[in-house]
Every structure is written in C-alpha cells, then in structure tokens.
Design brief:
Blueprint (H helix, E strand, L loop, with lengths): L1 E2 L17 E8 L5 E8 L8 E4 L3 E3 L4 E6 L4 E4 L7 E4 L5 E11 L2 E12 L5 E3 L1 E3 L6 E5 L4 E4 L7 E3 L7 E8 L5 E10 L6 E4 L3 E3 L4 E6 L4 E4 L7 E4 L5 E11 L2 E12 L12 E5 L4 E5 L2
Parallel strand pairs: 5-10, 12-17, 19-24
Antiparallel strand pairs: 1-2, 2-3, 4-6, 6-8, 7-9, 9-10, 11-13, 13-15, 14-16, 16-17, 18-20, 20-22, 21-23, 23-24, 25-26
Protein name: Ig-like domain-containing protein
Length: about 290
C-alpha cells in the first residue's frame, strides 16, 4: 500500500492539518494488479473564542451584555444559555462568566471574562444653620464617586456665600459606573439681630420709675438686670444709669444695645420764720425796724 505522500503501509498518519485534505492509497498485488482508493480528512473549523462585555464595571443590579466573538460553531455559556450574546445582571463584587465554542466533536475552546460591580451611588448632605449675613459649610458624605453641587462646584464640601435668606443646595453623586443619586442640604438663616433701646424719658427725678423698650428685635431680649422681654421698668437711683439689652435670634446670633438715663435731685421746698416789718412814725423820723 502506497499513499499519495509516498509513505507505505496500511496506516497513514497525516501532519497537522488546517484544511480538509484527500489522500490516495494505491494497492499493488504480487501480479502487478493495482487499485486505488481515496481517503478524505475533513478538518473542522478552528475553535476561536473571545468574550467582550458592554462594561467591565457596573453598578450592582445593573444589566449588561456579554458577546462571544470569533466562534463559527456553537457557543455554550457557563450559565447554561447558548448563543453569541448573553444578558447578565451581576450581583457580586466580582463576577466571572465563561463560554465554550464547539466546532465539532471534541473541537472546542473556552474563554472567560470578569465583570466587577460597584455599590449604587449613595449620598448624605448635612444641613446647617447660620446667622444672618454669614456663610455656611455643607458637607456631603457616602459618595464613592464625584460630588457636584447645584452651583456647579465639585467636592465633598461646599462653602456658601454670605446668606440673608434660607437656601437649599442640591448635591449629585456620580460613580464610575454612571450611577447617580442626589441629596439636598438646606442652610437655615436666622433672622437678623437688630436692636435699639428707647426710654420713656432720659432725665428723671431720682427714684422715679420709667420704662425702657427694646425696638426691632424678632428674637429674645435679655436685659442687663436679668429680666427678659421687650420692655423693662426701672427706677434709676444714680446720677447716671446705663442699661443694656441683648437681642438673640439663634445660637450665636445676637446684638447688644445700651441706653443711659440721667437723674436729677428732687425739688426741695424750704421755709423760715416769718419776717415782720414794724414802722415807727416819728415826727421827724420814719425808721423801719425788722423783727428778729
């Protein structure tokens, strides 16, 4: 038996083949009779496979698509599904998927791909309270991505301008997977602490009562005497008397004013012995004598 590649014997071991090939065998008997036969080696397509994911980092619970590239046979996924594409929803921090490309009996190759997940975006913004005309600092926490504020600044901390009205700011957290969430921080501005003092009189007699009034305060008025309230009744005892009051509209938000009230001594009525004038008429002299 002689083969077309010049080897002899009943068995032919072919070289590694990449294409289907035919081999002819010739049988020659002792009488010189010959006959031929053809043997065909069918080469199955090469099993080639690579896997691609629509994203390799996604938010937990977000679906993505896996694609089997290059396979001309049948694709079987590790999930049990078949076909060139697979839709998955990763649930673990690290998720590995594999697929097998089969082009014929015993002709296959396997590939795998890993998809990582990140937690969904989370964000907390603490609100703040400030005095009228002051700035505030808002702090965001919990975001593993980038924080963008409604005034276009970025970062975990926002320093507001000086505020005269309560204002809300929105922060948006965007993660590397594209997941976003928002939170709102409100800056409460306390009313402006305004105060002036008025007295029912600024000069009174020692011991005379008068009333002091706190004007313009929308918060709590505390007097230097320890009293509270918009009015205070006092009885000045010194020549000069200074009273002060503090208007408080919130924690650390206050202003102080003072007023001075002067006193005068009371009027004193004095009396002495009556004085009499005696007229003595003499013919030649008129003399006035004062009684003693």
């Amino acid at each position: 038996m002689t083969w077309s590649n010049s080897t002899t014997g009943l068995t032919l071991i072919t070289p590694a083949l990449t294409n289907s090939t035919s081999y002819t065998a010739t049988c020659t008997t002792g009488t010189g009779s010959t006959t031929t036969a053809v043997g065909n080696v069918t080469v199955m397509p090469q099993a080639v496979l690579s896997l691609q994911a629509s994203a390799t980092l996604v938010t937990v619970g977000s679906p993505l698509s896996l694609s089997a590239i290059g396979c001309v046979g049948t694709v079987n996924w590790s999930t049990g599904a078949t076909g060139a594409t697979l839709s998955v929803t990763p649930a673990s921090p690290t998720n590995t998927y594999s697929a097998t490309c089969t082009t014929g009996p015993g002709c296959f190759t396997t590939a795998s791909i890993t998809v990582n997940t990140a937690p969904p975006a989370s964000l907390v913004v603490l609100s703040a309270t400030v005095c009228y005309g002051n700035s505030a600092t808002l702090v965001a926490s919990g975001c593993t991505g980038t924080v963008t504020w409604s005034n276009s600044t970025t970062g975990l901390t926002l320093i507001t301008p000086a505020l005269t009205n309560s204002t809300s700011y929105t922060a948006t957290c965007t993660t590397g997977t594209g997941s976003t969430t928002t939170a709102v921080g409100t800056v409460t501005v306390m009313p402006q602490a305004v105060l002036s003092l008025q007295a029912s009189a600024t000069l009174v007699t020692v011991g005379s009562p008068l009333s002091l009034s706190a004007i313009g305060c929308v918060g709590t008025v505390n007097w230097s005497t320890g009293a509270t309230g918009a009015t205070l009744s006092v009885t000045p005892a010194n020549p000069t008397n200074t009273y002060s009051a503090t208007c408080t509209t919130g924690p650390g938000c206050f202003t102080t004013a003072s007023i001075t009230v002067n006193t005068a001594p009371p009027l004193v009525w004095s009396s002495s012995r009556p004085r009499f004038v005696m007229a003595i008429r003499l013919p030649w002299l008129l003399r006035a004598v004062r009684a003693r």
